[in-house]
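> @MW can you paste both from yesterday?
MW: sure, first one:
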Amino acid sequence: MPPAPNSKDNMRSIPSIAYDRTNLRVLSIAIATVMIGFGLFGPFLPLYAELLGANIGLQIGVIVASFTLTRALCSIPVGWLSDRIGRKNVISLGVFLYAVVTLILAFSGDWIQLLILRGVQGVTSAFIWTPATTIIADSTPPERRGRALSIFNSSATTGLILGPALGGAIQIWTKNYFGLQLLDSFRSPFLFGAVLASVSSLIVWLYARETHLGTTPARPGEGVSAKLNPKFRATFYTLMTLAFANGFTLGFTPPLIVYFAEHEYGLSVESTAISISVAFFLSGAVNAMVQLIGGRLADSTRKKKTIMILSILVSQLVTVLLPMSPTVFLFVSLFIIRSGLLALLRPSLFVFQEDLMPKNIRGKLTGVMDTMRSAGAVSGPILGFLFYDLISPSTPFYLGAGIFLVATLFFYVYAREPKLEESEA
């Protein structure tokens, strides 16, 4: 097979179908299963951390950020590794290790142990998301990439929305039926999450198809834009700033929503768990449906830049209104609306970035974007809870909106959307 466009390296690529529906189906099922398991315990981490001894917002912010920090540090090397040894192998290993760490998390003795284990779990997460996004892009032609990535991401979101409701039910059931103490009842969702991740690892190993093996991929230390079309290098950098801003707002929102609802509306731990389970379920349902619409729009209109800018502007207006809500009901309602608006952004953002990346270094460049997104997600909880403690509960929402709007301004000025014939296969 001849070398990939814009590359002088001799590559060995595994031939792939123009539109490999098998990989899309297998990875969508696998990621949904993983995210159900993650959703079982993810939204309740602030409550679990408090029960393990964390007593200020910053401690909880650091626990949440530890996951995304280690993921950020590993995304580029993992992307490079997937270019080298194949996407499927990396994903299978990552999901298996994720299952093992999730199991150990159930036995955390204090919030320091929780912090360390969440960091390790972040490493395993990098082995999943970067190569999974890459393999979907590899398996799909540019004109169908929006729909494919929206189906994949909607599957993840569907798993995530089912998780909190099931996690809350498991916590309540084990507490009431087995008579567990409150802390022990919050351990049980981790056990179920570990089982689901193990099943997902098996699905990927048995049924996913490899899409790429390269003998001379880009080196880990090589410049991130070295093999990009020079016409789109500035676009790539503006997408990096958007990825950071998106990660920032997505990073601080889930734990802060839980913490804000508990402390600003005077809810008990159990009432907060029930309320947030419902909120995340409804917001996730809206998110999953809107992503499918957004994927079709990205493919059919080829106006990804316009879709992205409009969804960001309206969603950040809603972000500013969130802390002004006088009731829990209005707070949750605005959170759901905001989730739908950000879901419209996601397919266009992911297709935009993947369309710029040559296949032989797509793993590494996807890792770069994941690193920027994770860097934002690391900063979000730490700065969000710090500002919450030191300034006011509403400040993190204003900060997140401000960062997103500044990144959007750079994107509007400097980004250039590739035409279909300019998109990388």
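MW: second:
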Amino acid sequence: MIQNSQYTKPIAVRTGLVVIVLIITLFVDASAQATDNDQLLEQQPGWAIFYQQQLSSSSTPFWFVANRAGMFSDASTTNSLLQARYLTGSEHIFPGITVQAGFLGTALYSDVKPAIRIHNFYAHFEGYRFRLSAGRYDEVIGHGAPHLSTGKMMLSRNALPTWKISLQTPEFVDVPYLRGFVAFKGRWSEEWTTDERYVDGAMVHRKHGYINVRPIPQLNLIGGIVHNVMYGGIHPRLGKTHDFKTYLSDIFGQPHGSSKTPLSNGVAAYDFSAEFHTNDWTLAASRIMYLEDRVSANIRSPWDGLWSGWFELHKKNGPVLVDYIMYEHLNTRRQDAMDFDLRGRTKYGMHGDWRSGYTHHERIFGTSLFGYTPIVITEKNSPISNNIIVAHHAGIKGDLSETIRWAAMATYSRNYGVCTD
């Protein structure tokens, strides 16, 4: 149950949302496993055609809509999706440099929002530990459970991807002379939104940096900072909001003018994980501390964010009924509130000027459990309808045979709407 009125204390215990999904899928390659929404054939070069049919007596079940890159509408009851995907092999164009390109076109017949889209169209240039990418493509940012997740809080596959240019080290790079004991990775990208927004033509800047300490070869102790900034565009009241000086100020989190905060809509996180890898299995746990503003950076809300743990088998002799188990706990109640403040006061995912919020095409960029209600956005409202959440989520999957895999997810959440004070 979602409460859109002002959050007050004490809170009566409400009935949460329980969703259970069972998926049985025929794979061309039973060992292929993508991340987050487990799309088929994603990494196989060449052409692939995929058809999906959804029918429901009411609205489409939550986990058939969430983390599907914005392909389906929550209110739909009938969805017929045809995908055509093409992926090139990794081709050498210069010594030490390769290129790989991909295309994904989708045609959706739906009782709510039928659409034909170029969903992915991109090229990755890779060499000397770096990757330069241009175009539109699905990706996730943040460490955590690799499959059946509610979605990474910084960037999941919940929303339609933006058009972007990015430069990153996709894998950890060993620091010279430390014999693999310490490694790092980083990213810098600029992205363009394409939806109808309150601030027309807003852009997104993303960057992150991670350090990986390996006391022993099997153990990875990872820590990093992720920073996302929504900026630019034409504001209906402020007009053009950014020049190069303002851009630099915002991406480095500096105050704007007489304000104590940047002009832009910033979303960030401290991201930590501990992962133990062997040739046969992985056991890991992660913690993302969600940061909405400069006050959050001082860890004012230490319990807010996403906790997760998972176990995965890698080496199997034939089908294994269960080869992956994961658990997540999402808590976004405090939101920088002191004991005497209203919970939810920071209004995660929302912003006073960038009123469309941390969204793209009516979907949250991050966790799929945040609520979005399509409305006509004005100076006094926001489409973010639920961001005060306590949730538990579990997933499990495995093999039924050499060619058939199964998966199940269960989610329980208490949803308190948004703080409107």
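> thanks! DSSP finds one helix and 24 strands in the chain.
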